Amino acid sequence: MNPTKFIAYLTSILVAIVALMAFALSYYALQGVALSNGIPLLLSYVWPLLIDFALVVFSLCVVTAHLHSESTWRQWILVGLTTVLTCTYNYLHAPANLIAQSVAVVPPVMLFFSFELLAMQLKNSIQRTHKVQVLTQQVTTLQDAIDNPILNRRQQVAQMLESHTQKAIAGELGVSVSTVRNDIKVLNGTH
């Protein structure tokens, strides 16, 4: 397996594990905040799912947008807002000391950074793939021109047709006017 693909797969798996751990650690705090703020017991178990699943969904939307080379700023705003929301509720639920409060906000922050790095990794991978495709196309075009002087000449004829006469094209390319006429027929699909 290609080392880059292996790292991408491994990163994706580890981000999924971070998401599960962050969810598990954050769930209790979010459920406690819901209960202490008037949400009935049964619904208090659902409320953390609403927030943390939304965070994961928005993060996956960032990754998907990167895979399709689309803009991601809207998705990042949603990821940022839900991360702040989860951190705030986790912080409020923690005991009133700095260590407990910082421990409470670590899971959603780590999830945010994990998805950020995964999205960046995918974006860079897409850009590298695109560069390779462009270079491959350029090499192929250059190789075709070297391997097929007739194709190269016909491309030149097509480019000069709008601004040159057939005689001028023939003179510039060092071929006969009849060769230029034949090239034009081939280009027009009539030969």
Written as H for each helix and E for each strand, in order along the chain, the element string is HHHHHHHH
* Count of β-strands: 0
Q: How far apart are the first and last residues' alpha carbons, in Å?
A: 49 Å
Please tell me the overall pLDDT: 87
Look at the helices and sheets and give the structural class.
mainly alpha
- Sheet of most strands: none
Number of helices: 8
Query: Quaternary status of these chains?
Result: single chain
Rg from Cα: 30 Å
- What percent of residues are in strands? under 5%
Choose one word for the global shape. rod-shaped
Give the low-confidence spans. none
Describe the structure.
The protein is built from eight helices and no strands. It has helices spanning 3-36, 41-44, 47-67, 73-93, 98-147, 149-160, 166-173, 177-188. By secondary structure, the protein is mostly helical. The two termini are 49 Å apart. The model has no long low-confidence stretch (mean pLDDT 87).
Keywords:
single chain, 191 residues, mainly alpha, 0% strand
Give a short summary of the structure.
By secondary structure, this protein is mostly helical. It contains eight helices and no strands.
List the helices and strands and how they pair.
Layout: H1 3-36, H2 41-44, H3 47-67, H4 73-93, H5 98-147, H6 149-160, H7 166-173, H8 177-188
